[in-house]
Amino acid sequence: MPDARWLKQRLHDAFNRHDLDEVIQCHSRDAVLVTPAGVAEGHEQIASYYEDLFRGFPDMRMTVWHTVLCADPAVTEWLLTGTHTGPFLLPGGQVLERTGRHVAIRGTSTCSVGNDRIISHRIYFDQLELYSQLGGRLVFDERPPSRERWAEG
Predict the structure, then answer these.
(1) pLDDT digits (tens, 9 = 90+) for 95-149
(2) What is the pTM of this model?
(3) Fold of 4-137
(4) How far apart are CA 27 and CA 80, in angstroms?
(5) Beta-carbon-side half-sphere exposure of residue 140 (alpha carbons within 13 Å)
């Protein structure tokens, strides 16, 4: 019976080959994928998440730094590297056209397993790290308070 570490390794290998069918087969039909960009539920939505990622970064690869030695959930620390050469769907529905920029994103993920498949996959990474490497700028909707206003409060 596969454990979470084995399934995560299978998922990482499929990810690095951009083998979408194998990525999906690692997940149960009703699996939940939680990322900083949102939640994907079931094969169709999870496939859509990875399709968008592979389209935007066709050379993206994952280097695993460390996997916590536990059966379930498996926790992995990793580095994603790739070049943004295709459209990339941002949270909120905007599409970022190719920038040609190389990114290196550090992150971690957890996977829980049930019936020999991933049932819960949570991915954590710093979105600001990604967007700044793609040339994005931090823009505030409102002006931050002045120092005088801080001193008053």
Answers:
(1) 999 999 999 999 999 999 998 999 999 999 999 999 999 998 877 777 666 666 5
(2) 0.85
(3) Nuclear Transport Factor 2; Chain: A, (3.10.450)
(4) 20
(5) 4
